[in-house]
Each structure stands twice: as C-alpha cells, then as structure tokens.
Amino acid sequence: MTFVGIDIGAEVHAAAAVNDQGSTVCKPFRFTADQAGHTALFAELERLAPVQLVVLEATGHYWKTSPPRW
C-alpha cells in the first residue's frame, strides 16, 4: 500500500509517498496548482498504484483548488 501526503501552496504543491512500513517509495515531487499540475499528480499516483490514502494539508483557502476527483 502507498500513502501520499500533499503540502498545499498558493502556486506550487509538494507531495511525498511512503509505503505501509514507512519507507519512502518515490522522491518527493512538486506540481503546480493548476490543471497541468493536477494532471501530473494523477499520472504520478497511477505510477505509484495502488495508493491507499491521499491526505492534504489544507492551508488557508488554497486547498479549494484541489481537483474534483478527490
């Protein structure tokens, strides 16, 4: 299983993924807070599959731009 944490920013978000043993499964990555960035995030999530849980740090109002697939 893979767990992904996302740190929300105004223009750029950062994400990291660990497995159920707490080991890092990919290098932390950044993606933009727009459609292109969300597309890149979903591509990375598909590569990491199966992803069990995605969590966001809901900073201010910036999390409201999160894609509706969540």
UniProtKB/TrEMBL annotation:
InterPro entries referenced in this protein's UniProt entry, alphabetically: Transp_IS110-like_N
Gene Ontology terms, MF aspect: DNA binding; transposase activity
Keywords, ordered alphabetically: Plasmid
GO biological process, one term: DNA transposition
Source taxonomy: Bacteria, Pseudomonadati, Pseudomonadota, Alphaproteobacteria, Rhodospirillales
Pfam families documented for this protein: DEDD_Tnp_IS110 (PF01548)
Organism: Azospirillum oryzae
Domain Transposase IS110-like N-terminal: 4-64
Regions crossing the membrane: none
Name of the protein in question: Transposase
